[in-house]
Amino acid sequence: MELHGGNILGASVSAEGSATFRATDPSTGRALEPIFHIATEGEIARALQLAEESFPSYRSQKPEKIAAFLEAIAAGLESLGEELIARVRAETGLPEARLTGERARTTGQLRMFAALVREGSWLDARIDRGDPARAPAPKPDLRRMLVPLGPVVVYSASNFPLAFSICGGDTASALAAGNPVVAKAHRGHPGTSELMARVVQEAARTCGMPAGVFSMVQGTSAVGMALVRHPLARAAAFTGSLEGGRALFDAAAARPTPIPVFAEMGSLNPFFVLPGALKIRGTEIAQSLAKSVTLGVGQFCTKPGLALGLHGADLDGFVSALGAAITATPAGTMLHAGIAERYRSGLAGWHASPNLRVAGESANAGTAAAARGPAAVLTTDAKTFLGNTKLHEELFGPATLVVASDSRERLEDIARKLEGQLTVTIHATPEDVKEFAGLIDILREKAGRLVFGGVPTGVEVGPAMQHGGPYPAATDSRFTSVGTAAIFRFARPVCYQDFPAAWLPPELQDANPRGIWRMIDGKWTRDAVPAR
Question: Which residues are tagged catalytic?
Answer without folding.
Answer: 264, 301
